[in-house]
Amino acid sequence: MARRTHTAAKLMKTDPWFPLVQALEVFDDTTQTSAPAGILQEREIVPRKPVQGVENARDGLAVVLDTHGRVDIEEIARLLGVDRDTTIAELGPAVFRVPGTDDDWVTRAEYLSGNVRVKLDAAREAALAE
Predict the structure, then answer these.
(1) CB neighbourhood size of 119 (10 A)
(2) Is 78 in a helix, a strand, or coil?
């Protein structure tokens, strides 16, 4: 038994988009039949389920950054099931409180990037004000 390829299909194999077109159907070599691919028949990408809890503060930070796009200490504490101070202690140097603000937290990468000289001056002013 040999698989026969139509002339049009042979010509399409030189097209760089051919694998994408070919992925739209599932061909069964045994029965020599084809069926539409799953993406054409049903939903393939399902919505993510929200995370209800985490085991450590670093995982909580990753979840909160993914869902909120910013550091939210209260939300990390809720995911951990502990109080705010315990969460801050467990995060350690992974987050920094922005000097001169009441409760604005950023990740280490964000705090140590950008115009660090301006940030250093703000930190010095905040330390003198305390």
Answers:
(1) 17
(2) helix
Check: CB of residue 125 under 8 Å from CB of residue 99.
yes
Indicate whether this model's pTM tops 0.70.
no
Q: How far apart are the first and last CA of the chain?
A: 85
Query: What is the residue whose two structure tokens read 């003198």?
Result: 128
The 10s digit of each residue's pLDDT in 76-103 is: 999 999 999 999 999 999 998 888 777 7
Question: Helical H runs in the chain?
Answer: 7-12, 18-22, 38-41, 57-68, 73-80, 84-91, 108-111, 116-129
CA distance linking residue 84 with residue 73, whole number of Å: 7
